[in-house]
Amino acid sequence: MTHGVVSPYAVSGVFCVDVQKNKRLFWKTYRDPVLATTLGVGEADKIEAAVTQSASTEDRGILLCGSRAAVFQVKYDVVFYVVGSSKTNELLLNEVLCSICEVFCTRRKEMDSEALLKDYALFCFIVDEVVWDGVVVDIDRESLLEKTTFQRGSKKAGFASMFQTAASTLRKKFVK
Fold first, then answer.
1. Whole domain around residue 154: which residue ranges?
2. Helices 120-130 & 90-108, crossing angle to 10 degrees?
3. Chain CA centroid to CA 3, Å
4. Single pTM value for the model
5. Is 6 domain-assigned?
């Protein structure tokens, strides 16, 4: 993206926190084209504290923390949240969050911290398919489910099978 261009499709970070253990399970930040900065550790900690506090009384919500907006959703013992600049459309942030949670939950049938850690590679793959370098690229749940479909006979759901599926999907799209 060109410097100075305001994009409504930008995300600053995607996070997951185990509420019971108060432990970060997943943290990925991106350079925000709106603010021209990367979400720092101190700022992420402040947002995480605000989200964790709100998550103790609500299952989902939107928070404004300084120049950042965060949407969050609680699933069992995990709080998932997506952060963008305060100028980013909260509906888009919410769609990103819902897409990630719904696709992972559909693939795993549960959405607790143990499931997340068991299929960490799958979760990372889903996040990367939804947000690439801070730009929202795909929030279509059907498309994401197709990309994350593994070969039924394979017991391995690791990076190799995910990338093999992604490569075949790309070949189908570009080689017609």
1. 13-174
2. 150
3. 24
4. 0.73
5. no
Strand, coil or helix: 136: strand
N residues, the chain:
176
**Ramachandran region, residue 30 (left: φ > 0; alpha: ψ -120 to 50; beta: rest):** beta
**Based on C-alpha coordinates, what's the Rg of the chain?**
16
In whole angstroms, what separates CA 2 from the centre of its chain? 24
Residue spans of alpha helices (H) in the chain = 41-55, 90-108, 113-118, 120-130, 141-147, 159-174
Alpha helices in 67-119, H assignment, sequence order: 90-108, 113-118
Domain-embedded: residue 85: yes
Q: Do the domain assignments include residue 8?
A: no
Under a CB-based contact definition with an 8 Å cutoff, are residues 13 and 29 in contact?
yes
Amino acid at 35: L
CATH number at residue 103: 3.30.450.60
Residue 95 to residue 11: CA distance in whole angstroms: 12
**pLDDT tens, residue by residue, 114-173:** 888 888 888 999 999 999 888 898 888 898 888 887 533 445 555 556 666 667 776 776
Q: Which two tokens stand for residue 55?
A: 């998550």
CA distance 152 to 131: 27
Instruction: Name the pairing type of β-strands 31-32 and 23-29.
Output: unpaired
